[in-house]
Amino acid sequence: MQKHILRTALALGAASAIAATPARAELVNAQNPATIKTILESQGWPATLIQKDGDDPYIESSRNDMKFLVIFMNCTDNKRCKTIQYYMGFNDAKDLALTRLNQWNKDKRFARAYKDDEGDPVLEMDVDLDFAGIPRENVGESLNTWASLMDSFREFVFEK
Questions:
Q1: Span 16-31, pLDDT tens digits
Q2: Residue 160 predicted with pLDDT over 90
Q3: pLDDT above 90 (res 67)
Q4: pTM strictly above 0.85
Q5: d(C-alpha 30, C-alpha 85), whole Å
Q6: Which residue in 86, 91, 90 sits closest to 69, CA to CA?
Q7: Over the chain, what HEC string results?
Q8: Does the domain spanning 27-158 belong to CATH 3.40.50.150?
Q9: How many Å apart are CA 1 and CA 89, to the nearest integer?
Q10: pLDDT for position 18
Q11: Which InterPro entries does the record associate with it (predicted)?
């Protein structure tokens, strides 16, 4: 009888230990652009994956009438990418002063602003998905941060 009780206690202890172990989060890396596309779409944003021979892949998307790109970077042979970059710009705000962009960079975190080669103010945010990747929820949260920064940047660029 004692052995039966001991076995039952051990079995229940093992079962409760397994139940208490949190489920392992799905890790997302930049090696499969279709996964990032799916995450964008799950946010309710359109996403078009562009994969041209000889070029690294990227995704075209938009949110609140603002177009942006998800650029896959640090790729080997245009595959096996390690990082992504969210990128957007305004080609109708060339007169924005560099001192104003410097103020953005001084006051904001997570993304940087500058003028591109055409003089357009742009905003970039890098996300490192190297090695095993990061939990899918973190990728979604990086998109939430990006969305907030895009809204703030539009307001910042066009406020009078």
A1: 544 444 566 799 999 9
A2: no
A3: yes
A4: no
A5: 10
A6: 86
A7: CHHHHHHHHHHHHHHHHHHHCCCCCCEECCCCHHHHHHHHHHCCCCEEEECCCCCCCEEEEEECCEEEEEEEECCECCECCCEEEEEEECCCCCCCCHHHHHHHHHHCCCCEEEECCCCCEEEEEEEECCCCCEEHHHHHHHHHHHHHHHHHHHHHHHCC
A8: no
A9: 75
A10: 47
A11: Put_sensory_transdc_reg_YbjN
Residue with tokens 């079995």: 11
Report pLDDT digits (tens) over 46-65. Answer: 999 999 999 999 999 999 99
The type of residue at 50 is I
Residue 70 main-chain phi, psi, to 5 deg: -115, 110
Q: What is the reported pLDDT for 51? A: 95
Which among 67, 24, 36 is positioned nearest to 142, based on CA atoms? 36
**Could you identify the residue written with the tokens 């009780």?**
5
Amino acid at 20: A
Q: How confident is the model at residue 8 (pLDDT cuts 50, 70, 90)?
A: low
